[in-house]
Amino acid sequence: MCHAFFNDSRFYQYLFHIDQEMANEAQSEGCAHCGGRLHVASYPRKPRGIRCALDDSYERRLSFCCATDGCRRRCTPPSVRFLGRKVYLGALVILVTAMEHGLSTKRQKQLIEQLDLYPQTIARWRRWWRKIFPASRCWQAHRGHYIPPIDVSQLPGALLVRLSGKDLQHRVCLLLRLLAPLTTTSWSGCLRVVINPQKM
Ligand SMILES: [Zn+2]
Question: Measured in angstroms, how far is the CA atom of residue 65 from the centroid of ligand 1?
Answer without folding.
Answer: 8
